[in-house]
Amino acid sequence: MSDLPKNETPALRAVPEPEQAAPQRQPESLGAFPQLRMRRNRRANWVRRMVAENRVETDDLIWPIFVHDGDGRLPVASMPGIDRLGLDCLVDAVGSGSDLGLSAVAIFPYTDDALKTSDCREAINPDNLVCRAVRRIKQAFPDIGLICDVALDPYNADGHDGLVRDGEILNDETIELLCQQALAQAQAGCDVVAPSDMMDGRIGALREALDVKGFANVNIIAYAAKYASCFYGPFRDAVGSGSNLTGDKKTYQLDPANSDEALREVALDLQEGADMVMIKPGMPYLDIIRRIKDRFGVPTAAYQVSGEYAMIKAAAQNGWLDNDKAIMESLLSFKRAGADAVLTYAAPEIATLLKQR
């Protein structure tokens, strides 16, 4: 951290207004039936593919992976088909994803209760589970993009993303710890840090801390619009933070009723040095993705969160939905809304479907 007072952040860089696209000229007459038949461009597979406005590609996908400090695979009951991976099988799993064309993974740890403390000290341990996982993957697959979550909830006895004192989530003290956490991850070899904590001013502080320590090339994907959503339940099961959580996260995550506030959050994170922004959850917030992409024109990611994934899987298991079609349609909705990348637990499934096609 710098010598700035706790309540100050580095000077914010102005973000230029995106150029307004020239209005598209409409034909004088769009025609009418029977001369114009819209179904002609839908009559065959080849023409539907040719005129498709949006496509899902493997390059669009980021695969979130849960890791545990042990051997083998541990199923996550609330996320059908998803396991916590032990370090013994992690590299092989990433290799299988790489063979399918996946080029980026995000690592999330399941932390033993014995390591969860009120000061979250395990988050900054340079030999913690995440750092060891990063080193293993990077050694085996140096070209795979490695993304690390920056937040304290997996290590916090209170289950919150920030330090807690007398029931209050501490902003500035949390940022100091987040900077140390990000530096430990960068030293282990991660390519991207992704702060999901929603503390005010953390992007500028992280950017400065990384730059000062020689990690100017480490990207920051800011969870700029992370909502206080009910769709995170299975994720909290997977990382083991749900049972520890006291209260809720409404004092730092966005109110689901608000969209203008999301634009302000994105603007601030970009001013502070974010390279990309994230919207979380995904499908319930497609309007937010569209507004952000239209307003700022920056690389924008969406997180298809655990609850979204679990709903599709549960419906498919009951025969209410076609799993493959529902998964692909959901991804197309993100692309249509303007997302450049999507974090999804179904990434290997989607990559397999794309490869088959």
What does this structure look like?
The structure is a single chain. The protein has 357 residues and is an alpha/beta fold. It has helices at residues 45-51, 87-99, 129-140, 171-188, 202-212, 233-239, 260-272, 286-296, 306-317, 323-337, 347-356, and strands at 61-68, 73-75, 83-86, 104-110, 145-150, 164-165, 168-169, 192-195, 219-226, 276-280, 300-304, 341-344. It has a single domain (59-356), classed as Aldolase class I (TIM Barrel). It is 36% helix and 16% strand. The chain has an eight-stranded parallel barrel, surrounded by nine helices. It has a two-stranded antiparallel ribbon with strand order 6-7. Helix 5 links the parallel strand 8 and strand 9. Helix 2 packs across helix 3 (129-140). It is globular and about 70 Å long.
In short:
The chain has 11 helices and 12 strands. The protein is of the alpha/beta class and 357 residues long. Helix 7 crosses helix 8.
List keywords for this structure.
globular, alpha/beta, TIM Barrel, metal-binding, disordered N terminus, two-stranded antiparallel ribbon, eight-stranded parallel barrel, heme biosynthesis
The biggest beta sheet is recorded as: 8 strands, parallel, barrel
Counted beta strands: 12
Question: Into which percent range does the helicity of residues fall?
Answer: 25-40%
Query: Order of SSEs, N→C?
Result: HEEEHEHEEEHEHEHHEHEHHEH
Q: Write down the CATH topology.
A: TIM Barrel
Which segments are poorly predicted (pLDDT under 50) over 5 or more consecutive residues? 1-13
Family: Belongs to the ALAD family.
Protein name: Delta-aminolevulinic acid dehydratase
Keywords: Heme biosynthesis, Lyase, Magnesium, Metal-binding, Porphyrin biosynthesis
Binding site for Mg(2+): 265
